[in-house]
């Protein structure tokens, strides 16, 4: 099958086979199918984020650039360029891996669903949503890379001494 034909026959994340009758059941089935695909993509992104290869790519990027960032209100011009590079790198990684996992995946459809979930006050918290948010929010990205810098330089606050365990008898 040709690539053009594959692309035209490829259904998107929001394409759902629906019954012909218009009813609340049809609307619910559309919502359920979209929610299922959304959950599948989020689950796959969770797997990607802990994948050692992805972590290595992200850490290598942070290692190369973390010294450019300082905990100040003013940012160097280079910081915005680094942010754009990070966004492109992570988007490419996520999109290529999601396309490999789901032939129906379309990034634009997924981002539309993300916006709808956030707009509708759906539960959107956790590492997946932090990473996705960091792709469009310079300040959040800066917080992440500054946390990396603190960890790397040993200046991060260590709460481990506040944790005490007692043996169970």
What is the number of helices?
7
Q: Could you spell the SSE succession in H and E letters?
A: HHHHHHH
Structural class determined from secondary elements: mainly alpha
Largest sheet: none
Q: Gyration radius, to the nearest Å?
A: 20 Å
Q: What's the pLDDT, averaged over the residues?
A: 78
- Parts with pLDDT < 50 across at least 5 consecutive residues: 1-21, 23-27
Give the overall shape, derived from the CA principal axes.
globular
Determine the N-to-C terminus distance: 66 Å
Q: Roughly what fraction of the amino acids lie in strands?
A: under 5%
Beta strand count: 0
The share of residues in helices is 55-70%
Structure overview:
The chain starts with a helix and ends in a 16-residue tail after the last helix. It is 65% helix and 0% strand. Helix 2 crosses helix 4 and helix 3 packs antiparallel against helix 4. It is globular, with a radius of gyration of 20 Å. The model is unreliable at 1-21 and 23-27 (pLDDT under 50). By secondary structure, the chain is mainly α.
């Amino acid at each position: 099958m040709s690539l053009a034909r594959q692309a035209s026959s490829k259904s998107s994340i929001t394409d759902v086979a629906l019954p012909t009758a218009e009813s609340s059941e049809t609307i619910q089935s559309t919502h359920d199918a979209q929610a299922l695909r959304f959950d599948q993509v989020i689950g796959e992104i969770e797997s990607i984020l802990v994948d050692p290869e992805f972590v290595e790519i992200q850490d290598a990027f942070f290692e190369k650039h973390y010294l450019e960032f300082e905990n100040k209100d003013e940012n160097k011009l280079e910081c915005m360029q680094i942010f754009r590079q990070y966004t492109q790198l992570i988007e490419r990684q996520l999109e290529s891996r999601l396309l490999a996992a789901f032939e129906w995946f379309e990034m634009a459809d997924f981002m539309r669903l993300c916006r709808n979930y956030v707009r509708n006050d759906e539960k959107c918290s956790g590492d997946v949503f932090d990473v996705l948010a960091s792709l469009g929010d310079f300040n959040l990205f800066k917080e992440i890379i500054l946390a990396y810098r603190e960890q790397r330089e040993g200046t991060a606050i260590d709460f481990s001494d506040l944790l005490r365990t007692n043996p169970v008898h």
